[in-house]
Every structure is written in C-alpha cells, then in structure tokens.
C-alpha cells in the first residue's frame, strides 16, 4: 500500500471534513479513498457493483415476488 501526502489550505480541509460527514464517511481519508477507487473503477466493474447493490437492496422484495 502506498501513502500520498498533499498540502491543503485550512479552509479546504474544513470543507472536505464537512463533505465527508455529510456523505456519511467517518473521515476525510475514507472519502478520498472511496473517491479514488471510483475514479479507477472500469465501466464493467461499475456496472457489476451497481447490479449487486440493487439486488442486495431489493432482496426481500424479490423473495416476496417469487
């Protein structure tokens, strides 16, 4: 695993912290990691991830309809 260090203005860091919290992340690190993973994700990986999300989210509905 690699570590990246960047310099940010204090105001930008505060905005990132607020953004992370508003999106449900526990830290700026988590927000940035998820963002980078999203940027590196291929279109096929994105489609598969979304398909699994939808299936998992609606699993109970699918069981009732079966």
How far apart the termini lie comes to 44 Å
Tell the overall outline: elongated
pLDDT < 50 runs, ≥5 residues: none
Strand elements, count: 0
Q: pLDDT average, as an integer?
A: 93
Q: What is the element string, with H for helices and E for strands? A: HHHH
Profile the largest sheet: none
Structural class: mainly alpha
Radius of gyration: 17 Å
Proportion of residues in β-strands = under 5%
Helix content percent band: over 70%
Figure out the total of helices. Answer: 4
Structure characteristics:
mainly alpha, DNA-binding protein, 4 helices, single chain, 66 residues
Structure write-up:
With 66 residues, this protein is mainly α. The chain has a domain at 27-66. The chain has helices at 10-22, 28-40, 43-57, 59-65. The longest helix is centred in the last third of the chain and has 15 residues, at 43-57. It is elongated. It comes from Larkinella insperata.
Short description:
The chain has a domain at 27-66.
Give the SSE map:
Blueprint: H1 10-22, H2 28-40, H3 43-57, H4 59-65
